[in-house]
Amino acid sequence: MDSIKQLVVKSGLVDLKYLNTPEGEMYLQIAVASVAVGVALALYLATASKSEPKKILESPELTLSTTEAHAMLPTITDWHRMKLVEKTALSHNTNLYVFEIPRPTGHVKGIHPEPVLGLPIGQHISVSAEIDGKNIVRSYTPTTLDGEDPGRFHLLVKAYEKGNISRYLSLLTVGQEVKVKGPKGKFVYDRDLADHFLMIAGGTGITPMYQIIKASLADKEDKTQMRLIYANVNEDDIRELLYTPLARAY
Ligand SMILES: Cc1cc2nc3c(=O)[nH]c(=O)nc-3n(C[C@H](O)[C@H](O)[C@H](O)COP(=O)(O)OP(=O)(O)OC[C@H]3O[C@@H](n4cnc5c(N)ncnc54)[C@H](O)[C@@H]3O)c2cc1C
Prior knowledge:
Layout: H1 2-10, H2 16-19, H3 22-36, E1 43-45, E2 80-89, E3 94-100, E4 124-131, E5 134-140, E6 152-158, H4 165-171, E7 177-184, E8 196-202, H5 206-218, E9 225-231, H6 239-242, H7 245-249
Parallel strand pairs: 8-9
Antiparallel strand pairs: 1-8, 2-3, 2-7, 3-6, 4-5, 4-7
This protein binds flavin-adenine dinucleotide.
Organism: Naganishia vaughanmartiniae
Protein name: NADH-cytochrome b5 reductase
């Protein structure tokens, strides 16, 4: 725990004095526990001190245009079938999946805005499949924001050889469908949540962080200062991710 404390202190966001308080200890313990199970975790620290406004960096990839678009998930709680339209290997065990969001009845491409998932930032979806006669459900966080890839959303999923849904996805071919439902989760990010945001993630736990970071950077009014501490088994697991346009830009 002490070496993790040092790491967090080195990030420059919080000092050791704060981490040694009961509140600081509590946040840190939650953070470490979440990394240990290899899923997403966000630890946010609202500090009393006012910080320098962050420099907003421009990125042409983060231009969103969805104001009037049909939001697929928050309005309907049933399972939706979404078609896999692209699948790209990003590493030896991780694929990027692109799914098409079904258009509502009467939708005319080019006239109506393309449908969006409509997930609040920080929330995720459920993906379900019948495997060996059982209905299996797992959570995934889209890495695209609404409108970023019009009418579609992306998932970045690590395949486990003996896993259920991740293996099922890895065996899917373009044109096949999966069942999707959402939104899920208790945490919702908004620009007024805190001045500083410290995120600690392990492995595929990066996806919720990625979504929050992108949303924050795309919002010119958002002055939140963000820091990310990210752990992986080895560099090969994230090599592609390091060279995404977002990682290059920031
Ligand atoms: C909020 C949230 C968001 C998430 N977002 C993402 C995301 O964006 N991308 C992502 O990749 N993951 C994400 N995850 C993780 C995801 O939900 C799944 O946990 C992950 O894909 C593994 O699911 P699975 O069904 O393939 O494996 P599981 O069936 O759950 O198996 C998990 C592990 O146990 C092993 N195992 C399973 N059955 C056995 C057995 N009988 N004997 C021995 N070992 C076994 C498997 O090999 C595997 O290593 C997220 C999780 C949460 C909670």
